[in-house]
Amino acid sequence: MTDRPDSPQLIPPHGGFRDLQSYQMAEIVYDGTVVFCDRCISKRSRTHDQMVQAARSGKQNIAEGSMASGTSKKFELKLVGVARASLEELLLDFQDYLRQKGLVLWNKDHPKARQVRGLCYNKNRSYKTYRTYIEDSHPEIAANTMICLIHQTNYLLDQQMRALEKEFLKEGGFTERLYRTRIQMRNRKKYK
């Protein structure tokens, strides 16, 4: 059985999370967090595990939300919100690290902060783009780099949530789409 071009699509295309800028940045945040924690925080510390898990949660919830979006925009929106909340928790952990170690938290106009933020425009950015800032620099630079990356990721997630909200309000969810499709199919059968 093949789909006709005029038949309504009940489950729209979904997934494709690897193409989302938010996911790409969350993956960089996760990789950087693992390296930072292994370098700067004792593996026996509960904080080490919590930071790595918060970073992982940010990345994984974006992917899971994207995959669920075909049948539940509401669930996708919820999972993107969970990703955002996890990264906010991680942000606070990095800020706590700097404060507790007596290190400087860069403001957004700090020259190094601007330099790190500018790297996001690299076409093929990945963890490697930021590696020297995280692996080869003083912990103050590494933590502040991670903070910059989290801020950028959170900005992208905020934009994504606004777009999902608009789409949900305009198109509705799966149940509404199911109802519309059922009505369209009934109407087609009536007029054949």
UniProtKB/TrEMBL annotation:
InterPro entries on file: 23S_rRNA-intervening_sequence, 23S_rRNA_IVS_sf, 4helix_suffix_dom
Residues making up the signal peptide according to the UniProt record: none
NCBIfam families named among the record's database cross-references: 4helix_suffix, four helix bundle protein
Protein name in the entry: Four helix bundle protein
Provenance organism: Candidatus Desulfatibia vada
